[in-house]
């Protein structure tokens, strides 16, 4: 991240947010923080106001520059309305004007601004300094140092910045879950008592809860979804990948599933309905409708920027598909695909249409799971395109979706080892043969 080493939160408020091309896309309203056990707080993102007075969350990892008068992002925005979690606090909304105690014993002060600095090793932004104004003098000694004196102090020079000890402990407890991978958090949730589980689920963002649900056993997923308010359950489905949302809806009682489908955003629901039309154990039922798709004239550099986005899974990032317009599924004709390793070897300005693999293996949406698995194993693939009879791209099947369907239903709860090769990789060839033997 190319930035100054320090910025002040209050001075950042109202600053314009720009994309890499210099177009203004909103303005900064606040900084989202998570308190740490080290008595400071780590910035996780910015609250940004976009046209229409809507406030959204911009992860700090998507900010490429912070300077006087402007903040520049990588250009990708999630337009869902900002929802603050209980583990989070706002630098401006929560900390400014908060009364703190000066640890040198000279009295109390009110926070007027918060400075954040970037660690040169971890690249994380943390509170380092506070600009404070002394509280009204209450004794003769304090009067000597001045009633309205302002000063800049270190974050360790005050106490009470994050509330009482009990409040801070609760925030840290919730924050301790924020860095866990979804699969690890799912394991913890699975072991919790129902009340504690409900508390954690309530505090998770819709997107993160969607990731966690994908990692839980089916009975737990269904239990949690049935315990949520219908509107929130639909919002969670909106936040999930369409293929995962379709799988979850199939597991729910039909009346509930249909109700949630009608409550989803129309565009998200349309993708899910397309997937629900296919049998679960076909390429159409396995695929995601949101692979990485570009036009043939797209530069290699832009393709690399697409696959580098944090929210893209490694399996999806492995392949970029080149299609004629339209570039949303179902697309125009699929011209081919380019593996990310091939992209890395090419000149950044070269059009991706010049380097596509025109002999790429494709699957029909009606192809059975064992055919998909066999093709992946034969050609060592982690992603396969799914096309219709006119060679239009409908989606792609990734290896993680295949494994979810070929492993035993209780694999998340079992300690039995999964079949692997001598290098420790999942043995897709063995799994493909096992499926064929079962059907034979």
UniProtKB/TrEMBL annotation:
<dbReference type="InterPro" id="IPR058838">
    <property type="entry name" value="SH3_actinomycetes"/>
</dbReference>
<dbReference type="Pfam" id="PF26205">
    <property type="entry name" value="SH3_actinomycetes"/>
</dbReference>
<dbReference type="GO" id="GO:0015095">
    <property type="term" value="F:magnesium ion transmembrane transporter activity"/>
</dbReference>
<dbReference type="Pfam" id="PF03448">
    <property type="entry name" value="MgtE_N"/>
</dbReference>
<dbReference type="Pfam" id="PF00571">
    <property type="entry name" value="CBS"/>
</dbReference>
<dbReference type="InterPro" id="IPR006669">
    <property type="entry name" value="MgtE_transporter"/>
</dbReference>
<keyword id="KW-0129">CBS domain</keyword>
<protein>
    <submittedName>
        <fullName>Magnesium transporter</fullName>
    </submittedName>
</protein>
<dbReference type="InterPro" id="IPR046342">
    <property type="entry name" value="CBS_dom_sf"/>
</dbReference>
<dbReference type="InterPro" id="IPR038076">
    <property type="entry name" value="MgtE_N_sf"/>
</dbReference>
<dbReference type="InterPro" id="IPR011033">
    <property type="entry name" value="PRC_barrel-like_sf"/>
</dbReference>
<dbReference type="InterPro" id="IPR000644">
    <property type="entry name" value="CBS_dom"/>
</dbReference>
<dbReference type="GO" id="GO:0016020">
    <property type="term" value="C:membrane"/>
</dbReference>
<dbReference type="InterPro" id="IPR006668">
    <property type="entry name" value="Mg_transptr_MgtE_intracell_dom"/>
</dbReference>
<feature type="domain" description="CBS">
    <location>
        <begin position="356"/>
        <end position="414"/>
    </location>
</feature>
């Amino acid at each position: 991240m190319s930035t100054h080493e320090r910025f002040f939160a209050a001075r950042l408020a109202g600053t314009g947010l720009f994309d890499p091309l210099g177009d203004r896309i909103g303005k900064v309203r606040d900084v989202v923080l998570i308190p740490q056990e080290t008595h400071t707080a780590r910035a996780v993102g910015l609250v940004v106001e976009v046209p229409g007075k809507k406030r959204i969350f911009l992860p700090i990892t998507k900010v490429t520059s912070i300077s006087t008068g402007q903040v520049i992002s990588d250009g990708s925005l999630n337009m869902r309305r900002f929802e603050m979690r209980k583990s989070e606090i706002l630098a401006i909304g929560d900390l400014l004007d908060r009364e703190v105690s000066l640890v040198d014993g000279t009295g109390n002060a009110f926070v007027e601004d918060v400075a954040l600095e970037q660690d040169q090793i971890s690249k994380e932004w943390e509170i380092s300094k506070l600009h404070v104004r002394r509280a009204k003098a209450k004794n003769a000694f304090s009067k000597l140092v001045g009633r309205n004196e302002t000063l800049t102090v270190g974050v360790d020079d005050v106490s009470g910045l994050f509330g009482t000890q009990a409040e801070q402990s609760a925030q840290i407890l919730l924050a301790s879950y924020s860095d866990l991978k979804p699969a690890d958090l799912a394991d913890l949730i699975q072991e919790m008592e129902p009340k504690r589980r409900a508390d954690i689920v309530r505090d998770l963002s819709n997107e993160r809860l969607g990731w966690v649900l994908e990692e839980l056993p089916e009975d737990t997923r269904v239990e949690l979804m049935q315990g949520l308010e219908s509107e929130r359950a639909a919002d969670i489905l909106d936040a999930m990948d369409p293929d995962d949302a379709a799988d979850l809806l199939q597991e729910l009682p039909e009346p509930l599933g249909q109700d949630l489908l009608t409550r989803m955003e129309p565009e998200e629901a349309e993708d899910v309905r397309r997937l629900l039309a296919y049998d679960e154990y076909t390429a159409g039922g396995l695929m995601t409708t949101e692979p990485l798709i570009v036009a043939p004239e797209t530069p290699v550099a832009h393709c690399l920027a697409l696959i580098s986005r944090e929210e893209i899974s490694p399996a999806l990032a492995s392949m970029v598909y080149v299609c004629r317009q339209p570039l949303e599924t179902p697309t125009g004709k699929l011209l081919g695909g380019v593996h990310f390793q091939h992209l890395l070897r090419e000149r950044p300005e070269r059009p991706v249409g010049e380097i596509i693999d025109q002999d790429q293996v494709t699957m029909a949406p009606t192809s059975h799971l064992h055919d998909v698995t066999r093709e992946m194993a034969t050609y060592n693939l982690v992603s396969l395109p799914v096309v219709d009879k006119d060679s239009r791209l409908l989606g792609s099947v990734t290896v993680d979706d295949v494994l979810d369907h070929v492993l035993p239903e209780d694999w998340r709860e079992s300690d039995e080892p999964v079949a692997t090769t001598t290098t420790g990789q999942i043995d897709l060839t063995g799994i493909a043969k096992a499926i064929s033997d079962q059907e034979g």
